[in-house]
Amino acid sequence: MVVSFFKRQETKGIDPGRIPPGQYYTERFPVLHAGSVPGVDLDEWDFTVDGLVSSPQRWDYQGVRSMDTVRRTFDIHCVTKWSKLDTDWEGVAVTEVMSRIELLPAVSHVLVVAEHGFTANLPLADFLAEPNLFAYRFDGEELEPEHGWPLRLVVPHLYFWKSVKWVRGLRFLDRDEPGFWERNGYHMRGDPWNEQRFWGD
Question: Residues near 22 by Cβ (< 8 Å), separated by ≥ 6?
Answer without folding.
Answer: 81, 195
